[in-house]
Design a protein that fits this description.
3 helices; 104 residues; globular; alpha+beta; ABM domain-containing protein; Alpha-Beta Plaits
Length: 104
């Protein structure tokens, strides 16, 4: 399993557009086999820092998600917006969970 945390801060005038772009790629993600991955996006208390937490069953599903056109568009628009803080990517390992992350 692969677990990834991405944290970044957008400028205040890009918050709404970033949220819209996240919602667009989430619609496409929901059309996929969600038994193979979990992807959650959060906005922090400052109203402009976003955290994305993802769990992938394997590298194949991770690569498929990272190539979804709406996700690529989200990344490009985010990066072109003039970020306050560049994305910080952390690869993590699950220590324990209250339940199975994947059904199957």
């Amino acid at each position: 399993m692969i677990s990834v945390k991405v944290t970044y801060t957008v400028k205040p005038d890009f918050v709404q557009k970033n949220q819209e772009n996240i919602n667009l790629f989430m619609v496409d993600f929901k059309k996929m086999n969600t038994n193979e991955f979990s992807y959650v996006s959060y906005i922090c208390g400052d109203g402009k820092t976003f955290v994305h937490l993802s769990h992938y069953k394997n590298e194949d599903i991770q690569n498929r998600l990272l190539q979804v056109p709406s996700f690529l568009s989200f990344q490009k628009q985010r990066d072109d917006s003039g970020l306050e803080n560049l994305p910080q990517i952390e690869i993590m390992q699950v220590v324990a969970s209250s339940g199975d992350i994947f059904n199957g």
